Task: structure prediction
Amino acid sequence: MDAATAKIAFVGAGAMGGSIARGIVSSGTVQPGQVAIADLSEAVRSSFADMGIAAYGSAAEMIADFDPDAVVLAVKPQVAVPVVEPIAEMLPGRLVVSIMAGVPLSKLYGLCATQRVVRLMPNLPVAAGLGAIALTPGAGASQDDAAFVTGLLSSVAVVKAMREDQLDVAGIVSGSAPAFFAFFVDCLTRAGIDAGLPAADCREMVEATMRGTAQQLLESGEHPRLYMERVSSPGGTTIAALREMEGDVFYAVQDAVAEALDRTRKLAGK
Result:
């Protein structure tokens, strides 16, 4: 498939699916006429129609009318069966791309009536064109299929191919991590307020610091440890603070990842 001509349909256009659909169009990777979405929300459909993207209330109607080359399944995993079963017979012959967390390839094969499937684990920063996506091709997906999906999404995210057994961990490290970072921002802001800073000023300073730190690390490619050393003076305040929090924070993060992974596997029925 060629991204310049391929037609891509999104079954579900919520926070994640919608962000990817908007991102690949806004970046110029595809044209609005190459994309269609199906969503129950009239407001969502209207927002896409305003971009020149075909919007449907029914996934079956969308596939029959739009005749896409690739179908992106972007609904909650809890509703995978009732949403996908009615369109399953329409999927063979098309590339199926799933962003449904915790739904393994083995289940997707039966659900979609095809093994030409690519699983993705994206994260919310795709909405800003700064996301991270883990990718695993299914047994019936060709190298060209994987390359097509990678090229399609490279405008909104860093895309990394990996084994399926690594996908759940990647989904937590990148997919859940935005909430972890937001939580840290909130904790640091509250600590600053508790120590005497005005609330609005403290939050603005913390958020600006996080943006600047992320940008510097991204631009430099520097290992986080080296960056920490540049900020830390021998015997200074930063090193004292890091010593205080490092052990507890490290183990808390490990426990958080383990808990999220356990929940992911329970949802997948593993």
The two ends are 34 Å apart (CA to CA). The beta strands are 8-11, 35-38, 54-56, 70-73, 95-98, 117-121, 131-137, 157-161. Residues 171-267 form a domain with the ProC C-terminal domain-like fold fold (CATH 1.10.3730.10). The mean pLDDT is 92.
